[in-house]
Amino acid sequence: MIQKFTVNDFEGPLDLLLHLIRSSKMDIYNINVESITKQYIDFINESKDMSIDLLSEYLVMASELLHLKSKLLLGKTDEPEDEEYEINSTEDLQEKLLEYESMKEVANKFKDLEDKRSVFFTKLPSDLSEYMSDKPLSSDVSIDDLTNALKVFLEREELNKPLNTKITKRELSVTERSKEIRETLKKLKKCEFTSLFEDTSKPYVIITFLSILEMSKNKELTITQDKIYGSIYLEMK
Questions:
Q1: Separation between Cα atoms, residue 146 and residue 210, nearest integer Å
Q2: Average pLDDT for residues 166-186, to the nearest whole number?
Q3: How crowded is residue 225: how many other Cβ atoms within 10 Å of its Cβ?
Q4: Residue 235 pLDDT more than 70?
Q5: How many CA atoms lie within 13 A of 125 on its CB side?
Q6: How far is residue 33's CA from residue 68's CA, in Å, rounded to a whole number?
Q7: From CA 33, how far away is CA 216, in angstroms rounded?
Q8: What are the b/e assignments for 26-63, b being 16+ CB within 10 Å?
Q9: For helices 13-23 and 33-46, what crossing angle results, to 10°?
Q10: How far apart, in whole angstroms, are the C-alpha atoms of residue 38 and residue 55?
Q11: Under the phi-then-psi rule, with left for phi > 0, alpha for psi from -120 to 50, and beta for the rest, what region is 65?
Q12: For residue 163, what pLDDT is reported?
């Protein structure tokens, strides 16, 4: 037996009414109150196992519908509103249904946004505090020198970037990228700092930069600069 009436994660009397109206292909501005009231009460009668708390919510709406139905049948629509009831006219019923439908649509949009957001993973900012030091990383090159060199390089690459580009996803860890840098330096012996940034996508740049810092921290690299603001070179120790 039915215990709860659920439509798109919403439950309750207004949800049921809206469903009945849509299923009957009625215009919400031209509701057949007699027909909807019968369908609504039939639903309650068929829901024998509904909990008392839930049933009470539906019975309150049933009394509202029966009150409205009796007013329409007796032609007492011009009488003052009965304060005991929230629905005293078809306009009241329409207003409640339209308001509920509007809230439901907004809630569904938020649900869609939540579902879309759940497929994205946000990486927390990397903690670079362990690399911060007044001492140079190697020789006379500091982390600020590397950062400035990388900034200039990326700005230049952005200007040279073609209008139509194909983006490929390349996932690396610091360990994997460090291994690649070691292999490159073993072949070239010495290379210019920015030449290691073959890909200028944000994840790749961050991983490469962190790998260089990690290798420098472990005293694997010799980092030199030929002159102030000049090119920075890396080589294995």
A1: 11
A2: 79
A3: 20
A4: yes
A5: 3
A6: 8
A7: 79
A8: eeeeebebeebbebbeebbeebeebeeebbebbeebbe
A9: 120
A10: 17
A11: alpha
A12: 47
Helices 52-74/33-46 angle, 10° precision: 160
What the block records as the tokens of 237 is: 């120790």
Confidence of residue 4 (pLDDT cuts 50, 70, 90): very low
Does residue 61 have a pLDDT over 50?
A: yes
Q: Report which residue type is found at 106.
A: V
Q: How far is CA 124 from CA 92, 143, 198, 205, in A?
A: 50, 21, 24, 16
- List, in order of start, the domains of the chain with CATH numbers: 6-117 (no CATH), 129-236 (1.10.10.580)
More confident residue, 95 or 85: 95
Angle at 146 between CA 145 and CA 150, to 5 degrees: 120
